[in-house]
Design a protein that fits this description.
The complex is a heterodimer. Chain A is 35% helix and 16% strand. Chain A is of the alpha/beta class. The longest helix of chain A has 13 residues, at 124-136. Chain A is globular and about 60 Å long. The two termini of chain A are 29 Å apart. Chain B has 15 helices and 19 strands. Chain B has helices at residues 9-15, 42-51, 81-97, 112-118, 150-159, 184-195, 210-213, 217-225, 241-247, 256-266, 320-330, 356-366, 384-392, 395-402, 451-460, and strands at 18-20, 27-30, 33-36, 61-64, 100-102, 127-130, 144-147, 161-164, 168-175, 203-208, 234-236, 279-284, 291-293, 301-303, 345-348, 376-379, 405-406, 427-430, 445-448. Chain B has a five-stranded parallel β-sheet with strand order 5-4-3-6-7. Chain B has a five-stranded parallel β-sheet with strand order 17-16-15-18-19, with helices on one face. Chain B has a four-stranded parallel β-sheet with strand order 11-10-9-12. Classes of the chains: A alpha/beta, B alpha/beta. Chains A and B meet through helix 5, helix 8 and helix 9 of A and helix 2, helix 3, helix 5, strand 8 and helix 11 of B. Bound molecules: iron/sulfur cluster.
Chain lengths: 194, 470
């Protein structure tokens, strides 16, 4: 479904400097039973946020920062594992609009883009710098300029790549079905021939 | 006529399914076969309802209930309210939109990636998608099969197409003879341990080489199944006589003359001489041994006789923190050996290893033996048909005598969405595909291994080098 339009975002950021964060950590399978898209944010990183007795784990970053911000910054190979789109929904539902990492799993990246969540790939060095900056000073302002494809952290900035089609979709709040439905005549012919 | 550029099998299938290629847009790819299940489809059907559109072609869509179904008393209503609701929602959606559903109790029900091939719905040359990452399993038949998210499930339901950029291609070639006690699961765990859990991200893999050619269809499916565990979009194996023999006579496969005609077509599904890949890797089958994972991603695997690496043996310093966290979770010491480590559970199941051949392998190994008293053993067949076949062959008796519990089909402890969970802190040797934190239940600890190694561990109650038993 179409999402809010995305142009520029200014926010603080949340550091999660762990590599290979898989979709089972983002949203454990036992929370996949809802049949709507909403409400998954409550269980985002569930088993890191809460202990076995359901008490919040105080030193987990999402529990101990007052201002969580709309940008999640994570170690490389974020979102590996399953194709569950619930991972992207949970991150979005929690309030994030951007995830920054030096590497994303393919399906997660697609799922994020299909749900108005912008995955930004940065260099290893920039990621290191960014994590250090926001860990040292949680109030550090981060600016995501989608139009110009620039990510700015304090005084330092880096350009990022994004697929032009996906960029247009994000900036205008379109989705893929709108485009594919416009091809239905061609598809029908194709269907008959196969 | 001008000479055509040589193509890989992947490019042949992809290019023949592009409905529209436009500058600045991803390819609109036609999808021949769409599988759906209860977990990733409800929001997609909702989307259709909101737009007021039907399923584009119900004949190309097949549904089953697998992810959170109970594996005991399947004839009774599902106890857990949310699971029941999800399965009921699937029922309702399939009825409303006219999609064929192999529901609980249906003779064709089972794990989606097991029923497709066994029903002959999965064929060479197709494009196949499902809202599940292990859709790569179907690639064993020489098709392009990959997992998609729910928004994409909605796309395919609505338009029979998906928007995709063509991934890069990788060839993984394995040649040589496999050693004693080494099966296809070990091949794929070995490859992933070599190239890491992200080593094939962005690629679509073709497995080739004489070792692969020598494998049965079932063993090939195990390999393609885990392509996603190294980050690949999917993995495929060019079809050959083994493939055609497997398909022949299956319920929904073309029959008689139509089948023969198809086989002639399918014979062209191979990579042309001179075609190039973006990456080529080669492995020697003789280097592969029975494998086991020790960490919390499938790339953290080793030969069962090896030691877990120590922290300073890691190539990348950036990995130290994740590595330590992972071993802490697993309750294991860097540098230690796993051989002889006591385990608590054995799970034989999942779309990786719950086909009849896997069950036969296990039954053969345990025949006349009994499980160790410290372990609980679950054998969860991949489908109703596998279950029935196992009973027909008397494997159920072998399991019973060994103290193994043969239950009804479903995903089960592969992801612990139903009651089958490994308790916190307990160790499970599992034939599934993921050892992520909490995958088999909160704080559960998973060792991935082959069905043979899992069976050996069930008997000894410990991590065992299966070669000592065969
Ligand atoms: S068996 Fe496991 S990996 Fe396979 S489809 Fe089910 S949950 Fe996914």
């Amino acid at each position: 479904m179409s999402k809010d339009k995305f142009t520029t975002l200014k926010s603080t950021a949340v550091p999660l400097p762990i590599e290979n964060i898989d979709t089972d950590q983002i949203i454990p399978a036992r929370f996949l039973k809802a049949t709507t898209r909403e409400g998954f944010g409550d269980n985002l990183f569930r088993d890191w946020r809460y202990d076995a007795e359901n008490n919040p784990v105080n030193d987990f970053v999402l529990n101990n920062r007052k201002d969580t911000g709309k940008i999640l910054v994570a170690g490389k190979n974020f979102g590996c594992g399953s194709s569950r789109e619930h991972a992207a929904w949970a991150i979005y539902d929690f309030g994030f609009r951007v995830v920054v990492s030096s590497f994303f799993a393919d399906i997660f990246k697609n799922n994020a883009l299909n749900n108005g969540l912008l995955p930004i790939v940065v260099s290893d060095n920039f990621l290191k710098h960014m994590l250090a900056a926001i860990e040292a000073k949680p109030s550090t302002e981060v600016v995501v300029d989608l139009e110009n494809q620039v990510l700015q952290v304090g005084e330092v900035q880096e350009a990022f790549e994004i697929n032009q089609y996906k960029k247009t979709c994000l900036m205008n709040g379109y989705d893929d079905i709108d485009y594919l439905l416009s091809l239905s005549k061609e598809v029908k012919e194709f269907d008959l021939a196969h | 006529m001008s000479q055509q550029k040589p193509k890989t099998i992947f490019e042949k299938i992809w290019d023949s399914h592009v409905v529209k290629r436009a500058d600045g847009y991803p390819d609109a790819l036609f999808i021949d076969r769409h599988f759906i299940h209860e977990v990733t489809s409800p929001q997609a059907f909702d989307g259709l309802r909101k737009r007021g559109i039907p399923v584009f072609n119900t004949k190309r869509t097949t549904a089953t209930a697998d992810h959170n179904v109970p594996t005991k008393d399947q004839h009774l209503p599902i106890k857990e309210a949310l699971s029941r609701h999800q399965v009921e929602t699937l029922r309702k959606n399939c009825a409303e939109f006219g999609v064929e559903l192999y529901d609980l109790g249906h003779p064709y029900q089972g794990i989606v990636h097991i029923i497709g091939p066994e029903l002959g719905l999965t064929l060479p040359g197709m494009t196949i998608v499902c809202g599940d990452s292990h859709t790569s399993t179907h690639g064993a038949f020489g098709n392009i099969a990959f997992g998609i998210g729910t928004s994409e499930v909605e796309q395919v339901l609505a338009t029979q197409c998906i928007l995709q950029y063509k991934p890069k291609t990788m060839k993984i070639e394995i040649n040589g003879k496999l050693g004693k006690g080494v099966v296809s699961k070990d091949i794929i765990l070995y490859i992933i341990s070599k190239i890491s859990a992200s080593g094939a991200t962005g690629f679509f893999v073709e497995y080739a080489g004489d070792t692969i050619r020598g494998l049965s269809m079932e063993a090939r499916m195990t390999i393609c199944n885990m392509s996603i565990e190294m980050g690949a979009r999917g993995g495929l194996i060019a079809p050959d006589e083994t493939t055609f023999n497997y398909i022949k006579g299956r319920k929904f496969a073309p029959q008689g003359e139509a089948f023969n005609k198809k086989v002639d077509e399918w014979k062209n599904l191979k990579t042309d001489d001179g075609a190039t890949y973006d990456s080529v890797l080669k492995f020697d089958a003789a280097d592969i041994a029975p494998m086991i994972t020790y960490g919390t991603n499938p790339g953290m695997g080793m030969k069962v006789t090896d030691r877990i690496p120590s922290v300073d043996e890691l190539k990348e310093i950036s990995e130290h923190a994740s590595f330590k966290k992972s071993l802490e979770y697993m309750g294991l010491e860097p540098g230690s050996s796993l051989l002889g480590k006591a385990i608590d559970y054995v799970f034989i199941g999942s779309c990786t290893n719950a086909r009849i051949e896997d069950l036969r392998l296990v039954a053969n190994m345990v025949k006349g033996k009994t499980k160790a008293p410290n372990v609980e053993v679950w054998v969860i067949p991949g489908s109703k048909q596998v279950e029935q076949q196992a009973i027909k062959e008397g494997l159920n008796k072998v399991f019973e005598e060994a103290g193994f519990e043969l239950r009804s089909p479903g995903c089960s402890a592969c992801l612990g969405m139903n009651e089958d969970k490994v308790p916190a802190g307990k160790y499970c040797i599992s034939t599934s595909n993921r050892n992520f934190e909490g995958r088999q239940g909160p704080k559960s600890r998973t060792f991935l291994a082959s069905p043979l190694s899992a069976a050996a561990a069930a008997i000894t109650g410990r991590v065992t080098d299966v070669r000592e038993l065969v």
